[in-house]
Amino acid sequence: MVTDLVSIVTPMYKGAAFIGETIRSVQVQTYSKWEMIIVDDCSPDDGAGVAVVKKFMEKDKRIRLIVSPVNKGSSGARNIALHEAQGRYITFLDSDDIWSPIFLDSQLDFMKEKSAALVTGSYHRINEQGIQVLQPFIVPEKVSYWDILKSNPVSCLTTIYDRKVVGEHYFKEELKKVGYNIGMSETPITPVILGDEKVTQTFSKKLIEHGIYAKPIVYPTVPLGTGRIRNMPTAEHTREMLDEAVAVYQKIGKEMEII
């Protein structure tokens, strides 16, 4: 993890028309310590978007391109980029969005001023010609957990988070890939819902045997029949560690015929 580096995650699907403008908005940032990881999500455009990106890469080594051989959707494409990200700070910029030149500087300054793990902001809503078509979206000064359940004001476009504080999040996606039910949690806590209480306790014991301490959560802490293993990745867990943990989960799951 590079301390002062910002990793910009950009999923792209048929993005040839706008990706150039998106990249240029990154290149003119007043904060220059960034890497941009663009993942082409198996676009059916005969490589048009990839060709545009490669032209920028020839002159700017901070830009990286990954071409996915299968379509994974925007979240899957983002996770591919997150797996390769080297920066302490992570932010997301879709292939048809643009930033103002001071975006990174202002968000990082605000994060440090507030000692925050994550910051987000307001944004303009424009059409293909850059003309404002709707009123700007203004984030509320304060939101609660229940507010976010009704309407989430945290936009990928204007959000930066600190990996050192927040930890890794792609762990959830990897567990889903191998077939586990992880519920709807949006926090770093990742539950693996197994159901039966005895199965959950046995699973936890097997994890411990493999060097992974993850507590079994069973009735009456959770409703009967919804036993789960609770995981909490932190900034101290590297991608390699998380990959090893997923491999253990997959092994135990197959042994116990859960997945």
What does this structure look like?
- The protein is globular and about 60 Å long.
- The model has no long low-confidence stretch (mean pLDDT 89).
- Strands 3-2-1-4-8-5 form a 6-stranded mixed beta sheet. Strands 9-11-10 form a 3-stranded antiparallel beta sheet, with helices on one face.
- It has helices spanning 19-27, 48-59, 73-84, 103-114, 145-150, 163-166, 170-177, 197-209, 239-255, and strands at 2-12, 34-40, 63-67, 87-92, 118-119, 123-126, 132-137, 160-162, 190-195, 215-217, 227-231.
- The protein is built from 9 helices and 11 strands.
- A hairpin with a 5-residue loop joins strand 6 (123-126) and strand 7 (132-137).
- It has 259 residues and is α/β, with parallel strands linked by helices.
What topology emerges from the helices and strands here?
Layout: E1 2-12, H1 19-27, E2 34-40, H2 48-59, E3 63-67, H3 73-84, E4 87-92, H4 103-114, E5 118-119, E6 123-126, E7 132-137, H5 145-150, E8 160-162, H6 163-166, H7 170-177, E9 190-195, H8 197-209, E10 215-217, E11 227-231, H9 239-255
Parallel strand pairs: 1-2, 1-4, 2-3
Antiparallel strand pairs: 4-8, 5-8, 6-7, 9-11, 10-11
Provide key terms for this protein:
259 residues, alpha/beta, six-stranded mixed beta sheet, three-stranded antiparallel beta sheet, 11 strands, 36% helix, globular
How does the helix and strand content classify structurally? alpha/beta
Q: In angstroms, what separates the terminal alpha carbons?
A: 33 Å
Quaternary state reads single chain
* Rg estimate, integer Å: 20 Å
Shape: globular
